Amino acid sequence: MAQSRMTGIPNAAAFSHLIERAADERDNAARALANASLLRDDSRNKVEMLETYRRDYLQRMRDGMERVDGPGALAQFGAFVAKLEGAIKQQTEDYAFREQVVAKARAIVLEAERKLRSLETYVARKEAIADLKAARRESKLNDEFAQRIAMTRLAAAGDHA
């Protein structure tokens, strides 16, 4: 809409300003969505990293169970696994929260885009109406001019006869 003429539209400057603001809002919302998506992806990567670490740790413990030195070592193993499970749970909750933030940010972008398109469509329609009115005015003037020329020629031909 940057190239728009906005001819024949009352308050064209106001509409131009509204369109610029709507585009800015859409751009800001898109940046917020991109940022939220990055945070969500980072959170998902952390969950995956923790789960991989837990899997590897459990496998190493299974492989080395014969070397465990008594119930103290087994208790330490259990406590570490519990802390790891807690970290995974917390990070999974963070990921779920980040998913919700991304969904809300996406909805805001879509609404901002809809608002911008609505304004652009409104202005385009008003421009089309103004263009049609101008074309009709011009056609009417041309018809009147052609009629005057024809009348003048007829009058001139009548004077010569």
Distance between the termini: 60 Å
Secondary structure class reads mainly alpha
What's the main sheet like? Answer: none
Structural domain tally: 1
**CATH C-level class:** Mainly Alpha
| CATH architecture descriptor name | Orthogonal Bundle
Oligomeric category:
single chain
CATH names the topology as: Helix Hairpins
Give the CA-based shape.
Answer: rod-shaped
Helix and strand sequence: HH
Low-confidence stretches: none
Count the beta strands: 0
- The average pLDDT score comes to 88
Helix-residue proportion: over 70%
Taking all Cα atoms into account, the compactness measure Rg is: 36 Å
Please give the count of helices. 2
How would you summarize the topology of this molecule?
Elements: H1 12-63, H2 70-160
Can you walk through the features of this model?
By secondary structure, this protein is an all-alpha fold. It has a single domain, classed as Helix Hairpins (Orthogonal Bundle). The chain has two helices and no strands. The protein has helices spanning 12-63, 70-160. Helix 1 (12-63) runs antiparallel to helix 2. The longest helix has 91 residues, at 70-160. It is rod-shaped. One of its GO terms (cellular component) is plasma membrane. Its main location: membrane. It is a peripheral membrane protein. It is found in: Cell membrane. One of its GO terms (biological process) is bacterial-type flagellum-dependent cell motility.
